[in-house]
Design a protein that fits this description.
The structure holds 3 protein chains of 3 kinds.
Chain A lengths: L2 H9 L13 H5 L4 H24 L9 H23 L1 H12 L5 H11 L4 H31 L1 E2 L2 E2 L12 H21 L12
Helix pairs in contact in A: 1-7, 3-4, 3-5, 3-6, 3-7, 4-5, 4-6, 6-7
Chain B lengths: L1 H49 L12 E13 L2 E10 L2 E8 L4 E6 L8 H4 L2 H6 E15 L2 E12 L4 E8 L5 E8 L13 H4 L7 H6 L2 E2 L5 H8 L8 H11 L4 E2 L5 H30 L19
Parallel strand pairs in B: 9-10
Antiparallel strand pairs in B: 1-2, 1-5, 2-3, 3-4, 5-6, 6-7, 7-8
Chain C lengths: L1 H17 L8 E7 L3 E6 L14 E5 L2 E5 L2 E7 L2 E9 L9 E7 L2 E7 L3 H15 L10 H7 L3 H30 L8 H23 L1 H15 L2 H13 L3 H29 L11 H16 L8
Antiparallel strand pairs in C: 1-2, 2-6, 3-4, 3-7, 5-6, 7-8
The chains are: A mainly alpha, B alpha+beta, C alpha+beta.
Chain lengths: 205, 307, 310
């Protein structure tokens, strides 16, 4: 599959946040503003890409019976790495998302991409597949973050846009759930119009 | 066959784990240093900002930061307070009883807490035990005169502990506060870091601070705009005097929807300042009181003009 | 050790003071009463309040023995003639040990007042289960949540299995952190070690359940696998490590988290079963409406914030 299509697939038709509904945990917690969403998105891109590369490079050496364990170890290593790097060099931004970066380990999305794609394909396509999925995730988080920040604190990226705080509830967990629910339905409508059909087995992990 | 499989699998896993551990260990070593450095830089930046220095007003080169370290210890079994204070060229450990009277004074050159135990002579160690370092107070001095004090306080907030730093002038009025650590909700308890809440403490004298309470009423518009006019809290002397005169006795207006967090911050600041002022008085009284057990106290640099 | 010492001190003082001063007062016990008070109980009924007024007491926090807390008034307690209540002008920090000493003409005494252990544990339990419910307040465990909450029986099954695994994992992670990670300064291996521990635990439970109770295994076995992908199963050990809980606290914290998740699952399942026969717009069907319902629950659970029973 050409590289561009891989990325687009990750961004739209199989967008992990809105369509596959995988790894939702941080989507509600972290997206109180765009900056946090972006930060976590970056972390996920890093982990996904590095894990995909590692899985692809080692695909001949991984024993099939313990592959899930080995994938988990690989992911845990990269997650700990990005966690340590962020806490050392970006301490202010890191404080708010610290727990959720560590939880990237349990993201079903990362393991499923490694299993479905990276373990069967050479390094370069794996890299771009990881990039696509990661970017799709970041895109989803930033969109939720934008809506919640705008409606909740009247700002975007810290800049006052509305001057007032219309719906404080948007910053609280309840608001997060509402926003995701609405954005999901919007995604459904748009994609149906574009003819990309129903989401693949929505609501599993 | 099964045995061979198991061995292969185990080998596989062990190698991978080993590599994972090595990578993590290396990353840890690399980032640990950067982390500590960055943390230290942040602390220095916050401290300087609280004292009124910043990008536009850099701290003078001869600004000196002295430190008073507070210890909890036991003398002959009874609880006592220990303070390591600067004395002459070195330091001195002065031990006060719980009621404030001086018990002992031990010169302790080049002591870096918490390794004080090593510097106590054998004889001292028989009397003094259970030495634990509690906190540090920092004093900013310029030409021997006190510019300000920096103390820390903490209090349980809505979600977790809130740690704050308070800067006091030489007369113990509040210069400003900074929230060092907090896990409060953004938009709610986290707003304590915003100028319109944080700067409310600026200008209040120690007596006024002890009296005030939290108010759930909305903050007056002019007060708010006055506070936000200096986001870093770098008010001039006249502005501080104005704040004290006009708003010194006004309550701390709580953040909308976060009374618990706001009260936590206020009580934390009150306790920290109240206890520091009391303790500094005790130390000063003990230093100036004539004593038969210790050598005559040397002239100390700017031990604070006391109150 | 300290308790025995203070008990002995009290007894000795009692013996000394009992003789000449007539029926002297002996301090027996003390506990926190509300946010501003400490209730002190004596061995004999309190008859003269004048000899127990504020100036005869000294109350300090153990970590700051030089700061006497501002005692305003001493009153009798209606429900207990042997007790008096010390009222302070500021909130007491119940997390600290308070040393209460009495030095009056009618007797002397000294006790340590701490928060009731059960109160601490139950507060932690309630906090993890309801006030900071893992699904509705911390938005964790959503991965599994939406997949499983479609039918009531699967919800109950997952909830119970999860609580079981969560409690075991809570205790195990406390042990691993206290005895291996902390002493060897291997904190940076937290993530790797905890997830490995969870995976092993799940595998072990799987095997044990298969052998011991095949019937139960048939009913619940399939949910065991889902637990490894649940965010909460990693979040709780990380929090236990972060906050340095002791064994009892870890146990109650993990139990609360598990039961809170089970509660959330059960509530959600009930609603979703009804949603399947409701008229939901096409674009909202399935996940979107589930999220919105979740949001409504989150709103409701917000009502618990700030709840403090003890």
């Amino acid at each position: 599959m050409p590289v561009f299509q891989l990325i687009i697939r990750g961004l739209l038709a199989e967008n992990p946040v809105f369509r596959l509904a995988l790894s939702m945990c941080p989507a509600v917690a972290v997206t109180t503003n765009i900056k946090n969403g972006f930060l976590l998105g970056c972390a996920v891109v890093f982990v996904q890409v590095m894990s995909n590369i590692t899985a692809s490079v080692l695909r001949k050496f991984i024993h099939p019976r313990v592959r899930v364990v080995i994938y988990t170890i690989i992911i845990a290593t990269w997650v700990s790495t990005i966690d340590m790097i962020m806490s050392a060099y970006l301490p202010d931004l890191y404080d708010q998302v610290s727990l959720y970066i560590k939880l990237i380990v349990v993201f079903a999305i990362i393991i499923s991409r490694m299993e479905l794609f990276a373990s069967k394909n050479p390094v370069t396509p794996s890299l771009f597949d990881g990039l696509g999925m990661g970017l799709g995730f970041m895109f989803g988080l930033m969109m939720i973050g934008a809506v919640r920040e705008l409606l909740g604190s009247g700002q975007l990226l810290g800049f006052d846009i509305l001057g007032v705080k219309p719906l404080l509830i948007m910053i609280l967990p309840a608001g997060g759930f509402f926003v995701i629910g609405f954005l999901m339905s919007v995604f459904n409508i748009i994609l149906k119009k574009l003819g990309m059909g129903a989401p693949p087995a929505g609501g599993h992990h | 066959m099964i045995a061979k499989q198991i061995i292969k699998i185990t080998l596989n896993l062990t190698v991978i784990c080993f590599f994972a551990g090595t990578i993590l260990g290396l990353v840890n070593m690399g980032t640990q240093h950067a982390k500590e450095e960055n943390q230290h830089k942040r602390e220095v930046l916050t401290s300087m900002s609280l004292l009124g220095y910043g990008a536009g007003n850099p701290a003078p080169a001869d600004l000196k930061m002295d430190k008073i370290s507070r210890y909890l210890l036991a003398v002959d079994g009874a609880p006592a307070l220990g303070y390591v204070i600067p004395a002459g060229q070195g330091q001195e450990l002065i031990i006060l009883s719980v009621e404030g009277g001086k018990l002992l004074s031990i010169p302790a050159p080049q002591m870096e807490n918490p390794e004080i135990n090593q510097h106590l002579s054998q004889e001292m160690r028989r009397q003094v035990s259970e030495l634990t370092h509690v906190e540090d107070y920092r004093i900013a001095l310029l030409d021997g005169k006190v510019q300000g004090y920096l103390i820390t306080g903490n209090n349980l907030g809505f979600k977790a502990n809130i740690k704050m730093m308070v800067a006091l002038n030489s007369d113990f009025s509040v210069r400003g506060i900074a929230i060092l650590e907090s896990e409060e909700d953004p938009g709610l308890g986290d707003e304590a870091k915003e100028p319109y809440f944080r700067n409310q403490f600026a200008g209040k004298s120690a007596a006024q601070l002890a009296r005030i309470s939290i108010s759930k009423n909305p903050q007056p518009e002019e007060y708010r705009s006055l506070l936000e006019s200096q986001p870093e809290g770098h008010f001039t002397a006249e502005e501080m005097e104005n704040l004290r005169a006009v708003y010194g006795d006004s309550p701390i207006y709580s953040i909308t929807g976060s009374t618990i967090s706001s009260t936590a911050v206020m009580v934390g600041v009150q306790k920290a300042v109240g206890r520091f002022v009391y303790r500094l008085q005790q130390v000063n009284a003990a230093l100036t009181a004539p004593s038969s057990s210790a050598p005559a106290p040397e002239a100390r640099e700017g031990e604070g003009e006391g109150v | 050790m300290k308790k025995i010492m203070s008990a002995l001190t009290v007894l000795t003082l009692a013996l000394c003071c009992a003789g000449p001063a007539g029926a002297a007062l002996t301090v027996k016990d003390g506990s926190f009463a509300g946010t501003h008070g400490i209730e002190v109980e004596f061995l004999t009924p309190v008859t003269d309040l004048e000899n127990l007024e504020a100036s005869f007491w000294r109350v300090v926090e153990a970590s700051s023995p030089d700061i006497a807390l501002p005692l305003e008034k001493v009153e009798t307690v209606a429900a207990n003639p042997n007790a008096v209540r010390l009222n302070f002008s500021q909130n007491l920090d119940k997390g600290q040990i308070h040393q209460v000493s009495l030095d009056s003409p009618r007797g002397k005494g000294k006790i340590d007042v701490t928060q009731n252990m059960m109160a601490i544990l139950l507060t932690l339990f309630l906090s993890a289960a309801v006030i900071n419910n893992y699904v509705f307040s911390r938005y964790l465990g959503l991965c599994v949540f939406f997949g499983v909450s479609q039918h009531r029986d699967t919800a109950v099954g997952t909830g119970l299995t999860f609580t079981m695994v969560m409690t075991c994992s809570g205790i195990l992670s406390w042990a691993v952190f206290q005895f291996i990670l902390k002493p060897l300064s291997l904190g940076f291996l937290q993530v790797l070690v905890f997830i490995g521990m969870v995976a092993c635990l799940v595998q072990a439970l799987d095997t044990i359940l298969r052998k011991i109770n095949p019937v139960l295994f048939k009913k619940l076995g399939v949910y065991l696998v889902l637990i490894t992908v649940n965010c909460i199963i990693l979040a709780v050990p990380l929090m236990i490590a972060d906050r340095n809980f002791n064994l009892g606290e870890s146990f109650f914290f993990a139990l609360g988290a598990g039961l809170g998740f089970a509660l959330a699952l059960y509530l959600m399942a009930n609603v979703r079963e009804r949603l399947t026969v409701a008229r939901v717009p096409a674009s909202f069907q399935g996940l979107p409406i589930a999220f919105i319902v979740c949001g409504l629950f989150a709103l409701a659970f917000m009502g618990f914030s700030g709840l403090s029973l003890f």
